[in-house]
# Entry
Amino acid sequence: MIYDIKVFDKHGKLKEVIDGPKVFNETWYADVAKSPYMMER
# Structure
């Protein structure tokens, strides 16, 4: 399970919230699409 990622500044204030599953899917699928093993299937 992947959760939202909270980014804090050095004072402990919430700076931004990253949508964990969305970012993970974008990066993971981009890497898998480039993989030669997935191209063969």
